[in-house]
Amino acid sequence: MSRCHWCDSSEVQFLCGAVIAPWILDDSGSEKLKQSGLSEYCQCQNCGLHFFSKRFTDGQLERMYSHYRDKEYQKNRQRYEPWYTEKFNSAIGNDPETIELRRKNLFFLVNKAVNEKKIRAPKVVVDWGGDKGQFIPDFPNLTKRLVYEVSNSVPIEGVARTDLIEEVKLARPDLVLLCHVLEHDHGARETIHQLSQLMIKESVLYIEVPEDRSPIVPRTKRNSALLSFLLRHRIAFIVFDAYSLFTIRVLGKKLPFQFLKQSEHVNFFCRESIVEVTQEYGFEVVAETRYSMNQNVRKSSSNALGLLLRKI
Ligand SMILES: [Zn+2]
């Protein structure tokens, strides 16, 4: 049994067998060894994190994130998820309504904390993994907006981009945004460690994650024969996947032949799990928020949880 990706505890409980999404496994050009494609869905008894145990290979991560949500990505994924259309793809997280909602929510949270004298008004903001910088709110007094971003997205006007950690450190950010990043990150613990080292005392970290853990844990066994079969038969996979999504996410019922699929999100946080590890690295919670994300994209989801943390 693997350790918790997040708090590093060995007190991990197996919940059910799972598969890696075939659109991630597929196109194995760069992978010499074809993986089994089977994974496990686990819960950490120490911090409460739910997570998929199988780590993606470098080749898989490269395929997923180097051309994140571009046309090829969308087409490849749609072969296994017919509902993953171009329109659906472009709506996820990046429609103007969602951007505005996220910016507004963060703006009010930070301003309130500033007014209550819990934190200082931010001047230098870094959005870690922040794409083009479109989620950075228009805080008054800002002198610098920087995105730390390894993909080659071109930042919007008024935002600078870097892929060098040293440059982030030199900017001496007083607010670092880590929004919708950790749920993708097998090395989430290392990310917090890095941030704790480059952030100065009294600076502020804002972590936002979706609250999207599966409401149902299917009965799927470890190394399930059904899952191995589905990985080899595309049409059958589509049918059982659609059935699982509908019965789990919409009906909320535990039924036979359901399964979970490991795709982009590998960590499923709760408040306690975030507090546990950020405390360890010297952060304390000063404010928090919970709000409903764009309802048009996925009807059955999804709340976002945000914690504003001060480095002590
Ligand atoms: Zn844990």
List the helices and strands and how they pair.
Layout: E1 12-20, H1 22-25, E2 38-44, E3 50-52, H2 58-65, H3 71-78, H4 86-91, H5 96-115, E4 124-128, E5 144-148, E6 160-162, H6 165-170, E7 175-179, H7 188-198, E8 204-211, H8 225-232, H9 234-251, E9 260-262, E10 267-268, H10 271-280, E11 283-292, E12 303-311
The protein binds zinc ion.
Structure summary:
By secondary structure, the protein is α/β, with parallel strands linked by helices. Helices cover 32% and strands 22% of the residues.
Characterization of the model:
By secondary structure, the chain is α/β, with parallel strands linked by helices. It has a domain of 161 residues: 3-Layer(aba) Sandwich (Rossmann fold). Helix content is 32%, strand content 22%. The strands form 2 sheets. A 7-stranded mixed sheet has the order 6-5-4-7-8-12-11, with helices on both faces. The longest helix is centred in the middle third of the chain and has 20 residues. Zinc ion (ZN) binds next to loops. Zinc ion binds next to loops.
